[in-house]
Every structure is written in structure tokens, then in C-alpha cells.
Amino acid sequence: MNDFLIYSKCCWIDGQITEATLHISKGKIAAIYPEKYYDDTIEFLDYNNSIIMPGIIDAHVHINEPGRTHWEGFDSATKAAALGGVTTLIEMPLNADPVTTNIKAFEIKKHATKNKLHVNCGFYGGAVPGNENDIEPLIKAGVFGIKGFLTHSGIDEFPNVTKGDLEKIAPILAKFNVPLLLHCEFGEEKNIPQVQPKSYRAYLASRPTEWELNALRITQDIQEKYNIKTHIVHLSAAKGLQSINYHKKHTEKLTVETCPHYLYFTAEDIPDASPIYKCAPPIREKENNDALWEGLLNDEFDFLASDHSPAPPEIKKLDEGNLFEAWGGIAGLQFTLPVVWTAGQKRGLTLEKLIPLLTANPAKFLGLDHKKGQLKKGFDADITVWDDTKEFKVTESIIAHKHKVTPYMNHTLKGKIIHTFVNGIQVVKNEELNTLNAGELLLKTK
Ligand SMILES: [Zn+2]
Fold first, then answer.
1. What is the Cα 4 distance to its own chain's centre?
2. Considering only CA atoms, which of 306, 393, 390 is closest in space to residue 77?
3. Residues 280-310: pLDDT tens digits?
4. Contact at 8 Å (CB) between 373 and 364?
5. What spacing in Å lies between the alpha carbon of 378 and ligand 1's midpoint?
6. pTM of model > 0.90
7. How many whole angstroms separate alpha carbon 155 and alpha carbon 117?
8. How far away, in angstroms, is 149 Cα from ligand 1 center?
9. Cα 219 from Cα 270, distance rounded (Å)
10. Which of 16, 144, 327, 381 could bridge 24 with an S-S bond, Cβ 3.0-4.6 Å?
């Protein structure tokens, strides 16, 4: 199936929902017709009222391979991605062993993807103390950005950087115009764990809003001083938007993402002894959740990303319920679209607002906007087809990532992915995996 037509009354083209037929040929969108268009010689797929949109681009995913493949892996993660309508993802440098902080480790990781990419996959390199000489080779080898932590990362081989470390690599990032991505938490360790290790309140208090605000100051200083592209990953504290908005008035190089779990859950609803909800920064109170939504609807976020970060149930401490010892990370890359769409129903979220946050905006951030993120003639045929009215329940049997451990379990979500095309190949057909190994390894070329 190299050449085919797909049709719907609801295609996302040029910033609006419109009737169209797309001619897919040799992995690209060869033509777009503004009505039902038939050609007897080409297969015609009638998707009726389903939404046809560009494939989701998830710019923040942890896959843990090689070295921690018992946590996740390219095969399982990219199957889950495809079933969730994600056609491109960018993988983080810290959870593989070796960590991706030099060119040798990057080569090992690329090798580990062989015959396991069911969607397109690119990578970030990592900044750790002392690896400033490795940054330029990583950039030249094609990473999409350099990621660092301002607090302990959870992985001992990936220590956090100081402002001084960032000052050393900033000129290199400026030279190549490659983004610095920062985990923004910074503050003194709070000594609450011994008291109530199973209390979500205690965990929340141990990583306060103040930590995010402190880190934002460091981040914005570096951005301003070196005029480099700087990206704030997974903002949880909505209060941070105030200073981000202020800095954005002076630069287009500062960007920020948030994640589905911060938009869907609130601290008040999280029971104690449930590390399945543990992530860092933490999911905060309802008041904060309201403010995140206000920011999202007011276009204050550049894009959404899953921050899919799974771990085996033992490491998540699901039996013991100790929030301080559990791995912090939420598994959910398969459910980004339905989670945000479901939570957005009571907030007035529109398709016009949602779709760019998952497609064109991350494409722009990654420098892929010349070929991905839109349904446009000549662009890659990465396409997601979904039903915005269909509800489904999250159960173990539908989860394709390695461990069937997610806080969305048993939740009923609205918005079902029906078909996914990657590079013109139908990877998901009628909600099930169809053709594998359609993904490409993506390297940043300029
Ligand atoms: Zn992350």
C-alpha cells in the first residue's frame, strides 16, 4: 500500500477542520483535494467523520534502552506511541545505561533501536558536570537538544549541573542554535520523608512550587546572558508562567511545555501510599491545575509532551507505597491525546487549540516544521485518525508499553485513536497494530 487516498469530512488543514481527500504516495502527502476525490486506480479509505490530523509529535519520552530495557524499550514504547497516535518522539538521555552524555553512548543507543522503531524517533544528548567537550560532537551527530537537571535526576550516572556548568556549554549551544532543555527544580532538600513516607501531602511539600520558581530564575538568566534557545520541560507550578510570559516578551528563544498528568489530576484526588502518581515536579493542588488550564487556553504553553517515564512495579514501590523511595515518573505516552481531550471537555478546550500543541508547535521547536506537524503537500505522511466522541476505558489489555502500570488505569477517556500512519505506512488499523518497523531514526541535520 504505497499509494492511497484517505478522506474525511474533518481534516485539520491550514488551521481549520475541513472536508478533504489526501493522496498519500511514497511516504509523502502528494496532493490534497478539498472534497471527496476518487481515482479508480488508487485505493480509497473513507474515514467519514473521523478527525484526520498530523501525527502527534511527543518531544519528551524516556525509553530506558539500552541498559534498563526491563523498565521500557524501543519496541514496546514505539508500539504504545503508535496506538496513541504519536508518529514522532524524541528520547531523553538519562535512563539508558550508558547515559547519553557522549558520542560513544549515543552510537550504542542508536544501535539499540535496530528493528524496534514503529514510529519515528530522535534523541537528546545530556549535560552533566565535566562533559562540556562532548557537547559539540553530540550536536554534530544529530541530537535535537541538550538536556540537563538543576536537581538530582534520580539516576546517579546523570548528576545535575550547576549554573557554572551551564555557562561552559552555553556558547556551544549558541554557536549551533541547539536548545538547552532544563528540568527546573532547585532548592534545599526538605526533611519530611522519615515522618510520613506514604503521605502524598508530605511528598508534595518536599518539592514545593518555590523549587520550580528558583530554577526558572537560573534558566532565564542563562537564556538571556547567552541568547540561547532554552526550553523548560514539564512545568507543574502555574505560578512560573508569570515570569516565563515576562521573559517571552523579550525573546522567542524561551519555550515551555506541560504534561497531560498535570492537566488531568489534582493533589486533592491522589490517595496516600500511591506512588503510581509520583513524578517530579509533583502534581499540585486544584487551584494550580485551574491556573495551568487558564495558561493553556491563553496560549502560554508552547506544546504538550507526555514525559513518559515508566519503571517496573517493584521500583515504583507499588506494594509498599513509600513515596520517597519510589521512582518518580508517569507512564502514559499512549494516552496523551485522550487524557488532555477528556480533561479539556469541562474547560472549553477546542480542537483548534489542542491540535497545534501536539503537532505543529513541537515540530517547530524541533526544527522539523519543514516536513512534519502539518497536513501539507510534500510533507511526510505521518497521520493520526481519531474519533473525538468515542469513549473507552483504560485496561491492561489495551496498554502496549512494557509495564501495565499507569495512573490512568480504569479511567474512562474520550477520544479514541483509530488509525495511525507513519511515513505513509499504516502502523495502526482499526485500533490495532497493523504493520511494524515503519519508523525512521531521526537526526537533526542543521
Ligand atoms: Zn522527563
1. 30
2. 306
3. 999 999 999 999 999 999 999 999 999 999 9
4. yes
5. 32
6. yes
7. 25
8. 10
9. 30
10. 381
Rounded-to-integer distance, Cα 82 and Cα 75, Å: 11
154 CA from centroid of ligand 1 (Å): 11
DSSP of 154-202, one letter per residue? Answer: S-TTSPPPPHHHHHHHHHHHHHHT--EEEE----PPP--TTT-TT-HHH
Ligand 1 centre distance from Cα of residue 4 (Å): 37
| Whether the predicted pLDDT of 193 surpasses 70 | no
Q: Cα(171)–Cα(211) distance, rounded to whole angstroms?
A: 26
Q: CA-to-CA distance for 401 and 404, rounded, in angstroms?
A: 7
Ligand 1: centre distance to CA 103 (Å): 21
**CA of 121: how far to CAs of 47, 190, 370, in Å?**
27, 37, 17
The residue with cell 554534530 is 140
Nearest Cα neighbor of 123 from 372, 402, 444 is 444
Three-state DSSP at 96 gives: coil
Span from the CA of 390 to the centroid of ligand 1 (angstroms): 30
How close is the Cα of 252 to the center of ligand 1, in Å? Answer: 23
Ligand 1 centroid to residue 228 C-alpha, Å: 21
CA of 254 to the centre of ligand 1 (A): 18
343-368: per-residue pLDDT in tens? 999 999 999 999 999 999 999 999 99
